[in-house]
Automatic annotation (TrEMBL):
GO MF, one example: metal ion binding
Keywords: Iron, Iron-sulfur, Metal-binding, S-adenosyl-L-methionine
UniProt-listed InterPro entries: Aldolase_TIM (IPR013785), HydE/PylB-like (IPR034422), rSAM (IPR007197), rSAM_sf (IPR058240)
Full protein name: Radical SAM protein
Pfam family, one: Radical_SAM
Domain Radical SAM core, first and last residues per copy: 69-217
Species assigned in the record: Ellagibacter isourolithinifaciens
Length: 336
């Protein structure tokens, strides 16, 4: 019988202390085969540490996609990208629908609300939407945006309108599989910080082609941005996109990565994403996303109408199946 790798065991034990790992240690864990006994230990440890970090409590964040207008940034994995042939022309959700979605999410118990747009969405419209949504949700409910790169003035404007933060990420192979320079992403992180907007980020969208070295680099970068939530999310294959033929990670491989992220970042991060399956939610992921409206990982007009968007009820069941309680009320830690 093959002997358990002592070096990996030692790294995991160090990770379990909750103070994070070095780049070299993180790389060693990303190199472990997903089907090995060491990987099973990594997944157990990821869950153990996340349970401690969040006191056994998971969260469901709710996303409203505002538009699917063709986007010039050409991210090859995205259904909105103009380089793909998935979407056509301009499509935006009316404001009354957005407000209705926001109210429904509050009734259903979402812990945070986020509005997603393409880079082609009018910034002024987004500011107006933030202000209007802020009026129909509780004052202590975190409100985030996921939009294009932002300058300092734009960050301040969003903050003044009622936003608490943004989801923003340097995506895998940014600048190669997208038309966005990494520096623009980094500048937005800095602008957000200066304007007082909190950050939600992730190592994503990860595909089978991404190496342990790439994952390690992205993990260290995420950790250095001091986010309120982060983790690892796999790329969802969207038919008709230029990356379709690269395929998709299995849930077990994604679960390993989620656990490695947790061990690498330590106990201070309360929210580890992405709990997209029971498998990842049992390996340390305690943040899941419910989705309505437009969705870059989908091809239908509104993802809740026969698309892939998960709802809060389904996500509660997933967390129950992996032994997590779900937080009641607004997520904390976003009000800078
Ligand atoms: S991922 Fe965002 S920036 Fe990239 S093409 Fe899609 S909507 Fe545009």
């Amino acid at each position: 019988m093959q002997v358990f790798d002592q070096h990996i065991y030692d790294i995991v034990e160090k990770g379990l202390q909750g103070n994070g790992l070095t780049e070299e240690e993180t790389l060693a864990l990303y190199r472990v085969e997903a089907s090995s006994k060491e990987a099973a230990y990594i997944r157990w440890a990821g869950q153990e540490l996340s349970m401690q970090a969040a006191n056994g409590t998971a969260e469901i964040h709710a996303q409203i996609g505002l538009n699917s207008t063709i986007c010039p940034m050409n991210c090859k994995f995205c259904s909105f990208a103009s380089c793909n042939t998935v979407r056509k022309g301009k499509y935006e959700l009316p404001k009354e629908d957005v407000l209705e979605y926001a109210k429904i999410y509050m009734e259903e118990g979402a812990n945070l609300l986020l509005m997603l747009t393409t880079a082609s969405y009018s910034f002024n419209k987004l500011v107006d939407m933030v202000g209007s949504v802020r009026e129909v949700i509780p004052a202590d409910m975190p409100l985030l945006v996921n939009t294009a790169d932002m300058n300092l003035a734009q960050c301040k404007e969003l903050k003044a309108a009622g936003a608490n933060g943004a989801y923003h990420a340097v995506r895998m192979r940014e600048g190669v599989d997208t038309d966005i320079p990494v520096e623009n992403r980094m500048q937005t992180f800095a602008n957000m910080r200066e304007a007082g907007l909190s950050l939600s980020t992730c190592v994503e969208p990860v595909g089978p082609e991404n190496t342990p070295e790439e994952l390690t680099e992205a993990t260290m970068r995420c950790i250095s941005t001091n986010p309120v939530s982060a983790g690892v999310g796999k790329r969802i294959t969207v038919p008709g996109t230029l990356l379709e033929d690269r395929g998709m990670l299995t849930d077990i491989v994604n679960a390993n990565m989620v656990a490695v992220y947790r061990l690498a970042t330590g106990r201070d991060l309360r929210l580890n994403c992405s709990a997209n399956t029971v498998m990842t939610a049992a390996a340390g992921a305690n943040l899941a996303w419910a989705e309505v409206g437009t969705n870059p990982r989908d091809t239908v007009e509104r993802t809740e109408h026969g698309g892939r968007g998960g709802n809060i009820k389904q996500l509660r069941k997933m967390f129950a199946a992996s032994d997590w309680k779900v937080l009641e009320g607004p997520s904390t830690g976003w009000m800078l």
